[in-house]
Amino acid sequence: MSLIIGYILDLIIGDPQGYPHPIRLIGKLIENTEKLLRKGCKSKEDEIRAGVILWLAVVSVSFIIPYLILYAAAKINLILYIAAESIMCCYILAVKSLNDESMKVYNALKNNNIDEAKYYLSFIVGRDVENLKSPGITKAAVETVAENTADGVIAPMIFILLGGAPLGFLYKAVNTLDSMVGYKNEKYINLGKFSAIADDVFNFIPSRLAALLMIAASYILKMDYRNAYKIYIRDRYNHKSPNSAQTESACAGALNLMLGGSSYYGKILVEKPAIGDNSREAEAEDIKRANKLMYMTSILCVILGTALKFLLWQHVFL
To answer: Residue 262: which of 119, 102, 179, 139 has the closest Cα?
Structure first.
């Protein structure tokens, strides 16, 4: 019930801005804990150990605090418990915010304002955007929607279904740790190693379930579901991450686009394999189509996930 209410709240109001925001608080906790742990690092081994301690500390706090809040709420009143957990679920999910941020790029492209489109795109992608033209801008936005359908929408839902909002926040901590310290650069190659590996482990099953749900969503939306399945089977490992190409390949197939490929990051060309076939040139409407896929995929996850949990509950307790 909390997931359903939280999902509906997210569709209506999106991601509440400003403090107190649990995910931003997790980010501040990571930042401050990292600074504290770095003071004792004098070698590569020290940094690796500090990275493990950082991960354990942040993940533990992110689980324990919402757990205690909900435990206290349940002691007071069941309605209060459901209300509190529903609000937590709303914070954890990122359906509307993902749509809204990508649609800013879409609207700028529809108004033929390339500079504005690149400006909004720079907030949701890590690559350099200065030299991108309209098709490249569109593909980058579509890739972001496709990838974040897995780790910003479906994976949090799955962890909420498994262990309520506390487990959902634990997952968000794992994901935020990877996005903040899980880099293979000089600063984080050692300290962020454990966080990067943990994120791959936590997303391994959810990313694959998200891709399968996306293929089903493409069928419901009358998109090219056969090609979605074909490209998924063929290109789902065309990425350095074992998980990122799962939903990207399904989306590329459903939209008959070629995604991925080499891009510039910090003015350095990073070679990456392509995902999908170059059947046609990307157009602004593809951002809208990717968001429709993301919405339908999330709806399927809520319906199927809650139905399975209800059936399991009946089997175990009745």
So the answer is: 139
